[in-house]
Amino acid sequence: MDKYNIPGVRTFEFTKIIGLENIEFGRNVLIDDFVLIYAKNKIKIGNYVHIACFTSITGGEKFEMGDFSGISQGCRILTGTEDFKFWGFGNPTIDERYRNTERAPICLGRFCLIGANSVILPGVTIGEGATVGACSVVSKNLDPWGIYVGNRKVGERDREGVLKTYERFLHELESGADDKRA
């Protein structure tokens, strides 16, 4: 079953998308059951993207997800949050002028992978090819091609290897070879 019938996008019975008119989808996109996308502002989802079950993308600000990126199970992409340390109080039932909300766009570059149960906070840009380990909280920009646990860089990803495999993929795609998946 494809709940939303969006060209190039596969969704399921329990996928929930609010604000569909604010979302630009690439092709070969897979959005699992129990994903919530609440698009009050513009969202752009690239080509060959996977958003796994129990993930939510919310907060009221822009979000961009580059080609060949993936968000694992249970992730929270929060383009807006409440700051309870200072003057604000309340929740969405209270008018914005009494709340100290922080909203800022989030951008995931091409080839990014976000590990299960991670949280990405407002204003973060995750550079091309960066990977984030499971259960991370990311509150700062991450450089391209790094391997991160939270905001701490723990390694380098094989940029040349990934791009070489990508070139092979494009060549096979152009030559009409079947898409081989494990």
What does this structure look like?
The chain has one helix and 21 strands. It is mainly beta. The strands form four sheets. It has an eight-stranded mixed beta sheet with strand order 1-4-7-10-15-18-20-21, with no helix packed on it. A six-stranded parallel beta sheet has the order 2-5-8-11-16-19, with no helix packed on it.
Briefly characterize the structure:
This protein is mainly β and 182 residues long. The chain has one helix at residues 159-174; strands spanning 9-10, 16-18, 23-25, 29-31, 36-38, 43-45, 49-51, 56-58, 63-65, 70-71, 76-78, 80-82, 101-103, 106-108, 113-114, 119-120, 125-126, 131-132, 137-138, 146-149, 152-156.
List keywords for this structure.
mainly beta; eight-stranded mixed β-sheet; six-stranded parallel β-sheet; 182 residues; 1 helix; globular
Structural class: mainly beta
What is the helical fraction, as a range of percent?
under 10%
Q: What is the β-strand count?
A: 21
Strand content: 25-35%
Q: Could you say which overall geometry the principal axes of the C-alpha atoms support? A: globular
Overall mean confidence score, pLDDT: 94
Separation, N- and C-terminal Cα atoms: 22 Å
Low-confidence stretches: none
* Spatial sequence of strands, sheet with the most strands: 1-4-7-10-15-18-20-21
Distinct helical segment count: 1
- Please tell me how large the radius of gyration is: 17 Å
Largest sheet: 8 strands, mixed
Element pattern in H and E? EEEEEEEEEEEEEEEEEEEEEH
